[in-house]
Specification:
This is Non-heme iron oxygenase ferredoxin subunit. One of its GO terms (molecular function) is metal ion binding. It comes from Nonomuraea zeae. Keywords: 2Fe-2S, Iron, Iron-sulfur, Metal-binding. Helix content is 0%, strand content 50%. With 105 residues, it is an all-beta fold. It has one domain: Rieske Iron-sulfur Protein (3-layer Sandwich). The strands form 2 sheets. A 6-stranded antiparallel β-sheet has the order 1-10-9-4-3-2, with no helix packed on it. Strands 5-6-7-8 form a 4-stranded antiparallel β-sheet, with no helix packed on it.
Length: 105
């Protein structure tokens, strides 16, 4: 599995989200304390950036229509989205956040 450094842990607000690019793939990074999660940064319902949404209770909510996604699995937890978004593997190396675009199994 190939990992790419995308930012520093401190760049991702605790309880918030940061949009980054891994190659040409948009990725939304969500930090909950010491854990960082990576989801495809395009809502499966409306094709807008999820990184512009809000995070609460392990959920990333799309700003446009309110679709909600579990930050661990990418599965929709609230309508109108019915399809999941990809999640990616994250590694923390010191202060750096590394992401692999290989889908988690």
């Amino acid at each position: 599995m190939s990992f790419e450094k995308v930012c520093k842990v401190e760049d991702v607000p605790d309880g918030g989200v940061l949009g980054v690019e891994v190659g040409e793939t948009p990725v939304a990074l969500v930090r909950q304390g010491a854990d960082v999660f990576a989801l495809h940064d395009v809502c499966s319902h409306a094709e807008v950036k999820l990184s512009e949404g809000e995070v609460y209770d392990g959920t990333l909510e799309c700003w446009l229509h309110g679709s909600c996604f579990d930050i661990r699995s990418g599965k929709p937890t609230g309508p109108p989205a019915t399809r999941p978004v990809n999640v990616y593997t994250v590694k923390i190396d010191g202060d750096d956040v590394l992401v692999s675009l290989s889908k988690e199994s």
